[in-house]
Write a structure and sequence with these properties.
The chain has 507 residues and is α/β, with parallel strands linked by helices. It has a domain of 102 residues: ANL, C-terminal domain (GMP Synthetase, Chain A, domain 3). The chain has 15 helices and 25 strands. Strands 2-1-10-9-11-12-13-14-15-20-19-17-16 form a 13-stranded mixed β-sheet. The longest helix is centred in the N-terminal third of the chain and has 17 residues. The radius of gyration is 23 Å and the shape is globular. The relative contact order is 0.09.
Length: 507
């Protein structure tokens, strides 16, 4: 490693010295200190080198969250390999496409996901038992000494992982992030949240997603502890884990935390969680119980895969004052609003949110055209529409590709969703643009009702009157059992746009 090397691994190794006996990972039945985890990373690094893995090779991870995931990730950084993070919610054909694009030399996989690799060329597959069986292949590697290996000389700016985007506009793109970018994001997160080595994270978001990764990276940077919830754990089991492990912070979509309000969430007058990261631009009332009943500090944030996670934060009092705001940029990034030509706009003008800073991605794997489109103006063009006011406070209007253009007018889906959020009968709702012969596009709403509640299309139309411009009102309404959302609850509007429109759905 060069004299200027700065990465997630350098932060982790510093804590392995400073906080050697502090717990780094709590994962099911296994508890590892920083020193123990560092030793396992060394052993795996030596094993990978002895098995022909070279700098720049891709190593795929198809694992549940826990110490093995972190071990493989850090070992990739230590030897210069690129971790390819696979989403176990995908179908075999989707996994096969990603593997075809990334061409991994080796894949670490949980046996429960074996079927997902049935169509993929994934290189040598190493089985990783999530229960840490002593006779398992992975445990045999990391728990026993490996022959010494000379670590390769690595360039400072190199990819640590590739996280594939959802591909709502085509095939998914492999977003490459350097170890330095992840470290910058992690340190910025720690500073903004005031994290110390006493922090204990309830890790509930999958590590193949940037929110889960940024949280864990922050713990490795500050010397805190990662407490991993099991993939199969229900809300009651996770709540018990929060108390048993005295977790102090988490970032979980409301569907995870809100069931706790109907359980014995506060025990002996206390809820161990002191920090909760939610989504910015949402109705602050959603988080009122967390802030007030649990005496837990709520923070909203905005970010994306290409920025290594959150790039802005807004505290709960500011959420109340500006409920539509996504907050102020974090210390390590700069944010602006650009027009289509890449010119910066004045406060209040609508355009594309753009980010600059050390946590911005290196580019997309083997996709120069998409890389140039995203980074060509010297900023990361996020694809999100927004504004900034004179105080530097940002506001998210919606995805540029999700903007609905009906009869020459622009409709931001979030505006329509907000009206549904006020309806007591509605459990969940989201809208999307659908093809329309007369208007080019029309607004279609997809509505999930609370059990035992009823609402007609005519009643919905009446509720929208005087609340929003007529061209923004849903022209079609479809009642559904659930909405398609990603692992952190983000609505998949592009999928909704592809669903058929029938005459009986007319509002």
């Amino acid at each position: 490693m060069g004299p200027h090397d700065f990465s997630l691994d350098t932060l982790f190794r510093a804590n392995a010295v400073l906080h050697a006996e502090r717990e780094a990972s709590v994962d099911g039945t296994q508890r590892l200190t920083y020193a123990e985890l560092d030793q396992r990373v060394d052993r795996l690094s030596a094993w990978l080198l002895s098995n022909g893995i070279a700098p720049g090779d891709r190593i795929a991870l198809l694992l549940t969250d826990g110490a093995p995931y972190v071990t493989v990730l850090l070992a990739c950084g230590r030897i210069g390999a690129i971790a390819t993070l696979l989403n176990w919610r995908l179908a075999p054909a989707e996994i096969a496409w990603i593997c075809g694009n990334a061409e991994p030399a080796m894949t670490f996989a949980n046996p429960r996901f074996a079927d997902l690799l049935s169509e993929a060329k994934a290189g040598e597959v190493i089985k990783v038992d999530e229960h840490h069986a002593a006779d398992g292949a992975f445990e045999a590697i990391v728990a026993n000494d490996q022959p010494a290996q000379t670590m390769p000389n690595l360039p400072d700016h190199r990819a640590l992982y590739m996280m594939y985007t959802s591909g709502t506009t085509g095939k998914p793109k492999g977003c490459m992030q350097s170890g330095a970018a992840i470290a910058s994001s992690a340190l910025g997160f720690c500073v903004r949240r005031g994290f110390s080595p006493q922090e204990r994270l309830l890790s509930i978001n999958p590590l193949f997603h940037v929110v889960g990764m940024q949280q864990v990276a922050a713990m490795l940077a500050c010397g805190g502890t990662c407490v991993f919830a099991g993939r199969d754990d229900d809300p009651a089991v996770v709540l018990e884990l929060v108390h048993r492990e005295a977790c102090t912070t988490t970032s979980a979509f409301p569907t995870i935390a809100f069931p706790w309000f109907h359980m014995d969430a506060v025990r002996d007058g206390e809820m161990p969680l002191t920090n909760y990261t939610g989504g910015a631009g949402m109705n602050p009332a959603i988080y009122a119980g967390i802030e007030e009943q649990w005496d837990c500090r709520v923070v909203g944030g905005y970010g994306q895969t290409e920025i290594c996670g959150f790039a802005t934060f807004i505290d709960y009092p500011d959420m109340l004052k500006d409920p539509k705001s996504i907050g102020w940029p974090m210390q390590h990034v700069t944010m602006t609003i650009l027009d289509p030509e890449g010119n910066e706009l004045r406060p209040g003008e609508e355009g594309e949110i753009a980010i600059r800073g050390p946590s911005v991605m290196m580019g997309y794997w083997r996709n120069e055209e998409a890389t140039e489109a995203a980074l060509g103006h010297g900023w990361l063009r996020t694809g999100d529409l927004g504004t900034m006011d004179s105080r530097g406070l940002g506001y998210l209007l919606g995805r540029a590709k999700e903007l609905i253009k009906t009869g020459g007018e622009n409709v931001y889906p979030a505006e329509v969703d907000a009206i549904f959020a006020e309806m007591p009968e509605v459990a969940d709702a989201g809208c999307a643009g659908v093809r329309d012969k007369k208007w080019g596009e029309a607004v279609k709403a997809f509505v999930v009702l609370h059990e035992g509640q009823s609402l007609t299309r005519e009643e919905i139309t009446a509720r929208f009157k005087d609340k929003i411009a007529s061209y923004k009102r849903p022209r079609y309404v479809e009642f559904v059992d659930k909405l398609p959302r990603d692992p952190i609850g983000k609505l998949q509007r592009m999928e909704l746009s592809q669903r058929p429109v029938t005459p009986d759905q007319a509002a």
